[in-house]
Structure formats: structure tokens, C-alpha cells
């Protein structure tokens, strides 16, 4: 009948191979489920974050996203950059805290860009945060890090391009468009953009400041007419 020992070893090997395959299938399925759950979790966090942002809950938003600061998701990271910056803009934030938050925001935006170079939002907030950091590093760094705009027409082109890509993406962009047209003595278009800035839904402290400045500028040149 042959070698009984060899036959038993063959059966044992076959059994172990089968068990190994079954284990592999279980592990593979578990990995797929885990990956799907992770994606769902990120989407859930982003949904919560967007709700808090739209509700103007700046501090709650920052607390939520800070829990995931080690994330590698670009969508989460640029939102965290924005939230850090918004906390820095709050009137109750000390100058020391503001500086730390500004640099923190830049780091998150940079990481978001590294994770997804095609993300317009990551590029947008990286540029904004770089400009903020320039305020602490002097004029040379500010010029080196930011878009160099020499003439009002160049500025106008930049602001319009940003607006075309993502309309009303940033309240300050609307304000800058209005101020640029004021300097160009085009009061009709200045009024158009300043009104949009004044009426922009205020989600952050900066949005409120933009509303106030836009309203003052509108009142100022209306009184001169």
C-alpha cells in the first residue's frame, strides 16, 4: 500500500495548504473591508467638517480635524489648513498663538499639496498660507513666497482667474477685486465686487472683517457721488 507515513504527511500538507488559502482569503477580504471602511470614515469626517464650516463653528471644526492631523488625505489636510488659519483670525487668539497657527496652517496645506498636486483647493490654501507666513518673515520672504503682482492690471488678471476657476471661493478675493477696480477708477465694477464681498456669507472672523471693510468702501465712494 506504499508508505503510510508519506501518505499522512501528504494529507497533512494538503490540509494545511487549504487552511492557508482559506486564511489568505479571509485576510484579503478583511483588508478590502478595512480599506472601504477607511474611505467611508474619511467621507464622513469631511461631511461633518463641511457642515461645521458652513455653520461658522470655527473652534469645533478645528477640534474635529485636529484629531486627524496625521492623515494622508489631501481633502482633509487642506480643510485643516483652512481651519488652523481661521482660528488664527479669531479676535480672542493671542499674537503668539496666531503665529503658531499660521505656520501650522502652512504645513498642513503643504502636505495636502504633496498628497494631491492636482487639488485646486490645496494650491489655493497653500498660496494663501504662504502669504500669511510672509507677514512674519519680512518683505523679502513675502515677495519670494507669494505671487508677485507689479501692476493693478496684473492683479486684476490674477484675481479674475481665481474667480473663474472657483467662483466666490474666498471672500477676500471679492474684496481685492473691488479695491483693484477702485484704484482703476472704475466705480461701477468696484461697486459690483464690493457688494458681493459685503453680502458674502460670513463663516469666519476674516469673512466678517471683509464684510465690514467692503461696506465702508461702498459707503465711502457712494458719499462722494
Description:
Residues 30-37 and 147-153 have low confidence and may be disordered. This protein has 2 domains: 9-145, Tetratricopeptide repeat domain (Serine Threonine Protein Phosphatase 5, Tetratricopeptide repeat, Alpha Horseshoe), CATH 1.25.40.10; 152-223, Serine Threonine Protein Phosphatase 5, Tetratricopeptide repeat (Alpha Horseshoe). It has helices at residues 4-54, 58-66, 74-89, 95-115, 120-145, 152-165, 171-183, 187-198, 205-223. The protein is built from 9 helices and no strands. Helix 1 (4-54) runs antiparallel to helix 2, helix 1 runs parallel beside helix 3 and helix 8 runs antiparallel to helix 9 (205-223). The N and C termini lie far apart (113 Å).
Q: Which strand-content bin applies to the residues?
A: under 5%
The CATH homologous superfamily of the largest domain is named Tetratricopeptide repeat domain
One letter per element, helices H and strands E, the order comes to HHHHHHHHH
| Distance, first to last CA | 113 Å
Question: How much is the radius of gyration in Å?
Answer: 27 Å
Features:
225 residues; mainly alpha; Serine Threonine Protein Phosphatase 5, Tetratricopeptide repeat; 2 domains; 80% helix; microtubule binding
What is the fold's blueprint, element by element?
Elements: H1 4-54, H2 58-66, H3 74-89, H4 95-115, H5 120-145, H6 152-165, H7 171-183, H8 187-198, H9 205-223
Helix pairs in contact: 1-2, 1-3, 2-3, 3-4, 3-5, 4-5, 6-7, 7-8, 7-9, 8-9
Amino acid at each position: 500500500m506504499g508508505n503510510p507515513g508519506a501518505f499522512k504527511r501528504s494529507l497533512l500538507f494538503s490540509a494545511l495548504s487549504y487552511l492557508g488559502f482559506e486564511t489568505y482569503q479571509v485576510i484579503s477580504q478583511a483588508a478590502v473591508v478595512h480599506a472601504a471602511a477607511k474611505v467611508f470614515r474619511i467621507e464622513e469626517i469631511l461631511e461633518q467638517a463641511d457642515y461645521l464650516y458652513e455653520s461658522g463653528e470655527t473652534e469645533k471644526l478645528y477640534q474635529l480635524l485636529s484629531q486627524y492631523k496625521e492623515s494622508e488625505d489631501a481633502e482633509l489636510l487642506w480643510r485643516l489648513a483652512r481651519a488652523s488659519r481661521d482660528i488664527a483670525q479669531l479676535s480672542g487668539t493671542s499674537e503668539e498663538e496666531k503665529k503658531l497657527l499660521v505656520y501650522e496652517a502652512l504645513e498642513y496645506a503643504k502636505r495636502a499639496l504633496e498628497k494631491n498636486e492636482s487639488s485646486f483647493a490645496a494650491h489655493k490654501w497653500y498660496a494663501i498660507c504662504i502669504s500669511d507666513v510672509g507677514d512674519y518673515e519680512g518683505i523679502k520672504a513675502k515677495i519670494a513666497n507669494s505671487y508677485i503682482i507689479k501692476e493693478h492690471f496684473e492683479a486684476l488678471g490674477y484675481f479674475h482667474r481665481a474667480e473663474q476657476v472657483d467662483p466666490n471661493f474666498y471672500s477676500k478675493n471679492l474684496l481685492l477685486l473691488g479695491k483693484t477696480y477702485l484704484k482703476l477708477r472704475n466705480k461701477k465694477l468696484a461697486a459690483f465686487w464690493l457688494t458681493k464681498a459685503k453680502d458674502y456669507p460670513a463663516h469666519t472672523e476674516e469673512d466678517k472683517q471683509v464684510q465690514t471693510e467692503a461696506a465702508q468702501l461702498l459707503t465711502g465712494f457712494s458719499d462722494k457721488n
